[in-house]
């Protein structure tokens, strides 16, 4: 009888213990994250498979060989996906890698990512590594090299912590893409960014490639903060994916080298502000936005520009930092909430989950990782108003809840 009682007591204790443990796990799971914690959680989920595998020299083994159903040359698109994913991931998390301090768990995570980024870059540049990356396989790599260049420009810490040998290898890898003639479109900015990278870090650079891109973009400015992408206007997000963020970065770097573009850079600044206003208004009350134009599978990168101008603390007076934070948080939630957003931990091709028909002929497994550029404001410390100020409604929420709200007018800014 005593033994039975002891056994019953033991089972009850185990049940209570298990229940307490389950409650603890549930409590941890249900803990409400603040916006910054949520962004870091989503950033980590998105980019971890890329950088962890690259650091372990296993990216080519682990990364799926997926292309768009509309692909033009499947074998080639798979060959170039590795430099593509490297540049896109690093360009988005670079400001966060550059940041110092913060909460202990964030500091620890950043330390890990810095180690992965450096090890990953070294593997990408090591001709003896499994994950060695050629930068001169095809024209697409002019694009992808520029994202690597943009990442290092955004996070000089990466450059400063690469040894001299790997600095030289990275420089030479980027220079090899000069052999590719850019498409007469936003691609001119990719050539210019590669030269700006060289200029920033003290190498010989070609001012003509920069000048050509800047002068041509000035010719393509069409009004109300927007540029055509080449000779005709398209209602897509290339003003945000590429044009405005690249022009802003070029203004910073080239503006330190010469005063020749001073007036142009002032115009660019004003256009940046105007397009930020338009971008914020495109975000619906539920975080959706018009799914129009090519490259729509880039998800949150549709707001690369808005994230970039927030990071730069250059938002126009009409936009508070906190309303932009809340609007971008809504976009992150909406574009990543579908259960088919990831497949075995890797981003799928689609806007809301896996939607193969939304892909373009040039898309591969690396392409959707440009979405990491929505995370740029993580480069601001937690004490910055962007993160510290209380939540605020963004324009669509105010308008569609019936609030009286100031109307909007176009600006020429030629």
TrEMBL record:
<keyword id="KW-0732">Signal</keyword>
<protein>
    <submittedName>
        <fullName>Uncharacterized protein DUF2264</fullName>
    </submittedName>
</protein>
<dbReference type="InterPro" id="IPR049349">
    <property type="entry name" value="DUF2264_N"/>
</dbReference>
<feature type="signal peptide">
    <location>
        <begin position="1"/>
        <end position="22"/>
    </location>
</feature>
<dbReference type="Pfam" id="PF10022">
    <property type="entry name" value="DUF2264"/>
</dbReference>
<feature type="domain" description="DUF2264">
    <location>
        <begin position="35"/>
        <end position="394"/>
    </location>
</feature>
<dbReference type="InterPro" id="IPR016624">
    <property type="entry name" value="UCP014753"/>
</dbReference>
């Amino acid at each position: 009888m005593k033994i039975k009682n002891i056994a019953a007591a033991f089972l009850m204790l185990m049940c209570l213990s298990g229940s307490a443990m389950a409650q603890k796990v549930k409590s941890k799971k249900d803990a409400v994250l603040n916006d910054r914690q949520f962004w870091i959680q989503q950033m980590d989920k998105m980019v971890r498979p890329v950088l962890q595998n690259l650091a372990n020299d296993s990216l080519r083994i682990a990364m799926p060989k997926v292309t768009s159903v509309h692909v033009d040359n499947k074998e080639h698109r798979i060959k170039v996906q590795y430099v593509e994913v490297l540049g896109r991931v690093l360009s988005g998390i670079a400001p966060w890698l550059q940041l110092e301090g913060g909460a202990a768990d964030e500091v620890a995570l950043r330390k890990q990512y810095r180690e992965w980024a450096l090890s990953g870059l070294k593997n990408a540049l090591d001709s003896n590594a499994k994950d060695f990356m050629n930068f001169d396989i095809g024209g697409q790599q002019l694009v992808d090299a520029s994202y690597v260049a943009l990442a290092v420009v955004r996070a000089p810490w990466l450059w400063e912590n690469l040894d001299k040998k790997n600095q030289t290898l990275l420089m030479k890898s980027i220079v090899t893409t000069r052999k590719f003639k850019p498409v007469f479109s936003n691609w001119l900015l990719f050539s210019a960014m590669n030269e700006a990278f060289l200029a920033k870090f003290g190498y010989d650079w070609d001012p003509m490639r920069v000048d050509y891109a800047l002068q041509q973009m000035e010719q393509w400015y069409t009004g109300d903060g927007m540029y055509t992408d080449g000779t005709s206007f398209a209602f897509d997000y290339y003003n945000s994916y590429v044009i405005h963020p690249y022009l802003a970065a070029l203004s910073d770097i080239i503006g330190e080298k010469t005063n020749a573009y001073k007036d142009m850079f002032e115009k660019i600044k004003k256009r940046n502000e105007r397009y930020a206003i338009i971008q914020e208004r495109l975000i619906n009350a539920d975080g959706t936005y018009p799914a129009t134009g090519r490259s729509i599978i880039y998800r949150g990168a549709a707001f690369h520009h808005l994230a970039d101008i927030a990071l730069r603390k250059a938002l126009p007076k009409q936009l508070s930092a906190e309303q932009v934070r809340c609007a971008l948080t809504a976009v992150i939630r909406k574009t990543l909430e579908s259960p088919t957003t990831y497949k075995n931990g890797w981003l799928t091709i689609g806007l809301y989950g896996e939607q193969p028909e939304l892909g373009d002929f040039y898309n591969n497994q690396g392409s959707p990782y440009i979405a990491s550029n929505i995370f740029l404001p993580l480069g601001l410390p937690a004490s910055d108003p962007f993160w510290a100020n209380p939540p605020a409604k963004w324009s669509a929420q105010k308008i569609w809840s019936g609030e009286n709200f100031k109307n909007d007018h176009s600006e020429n800014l030629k």
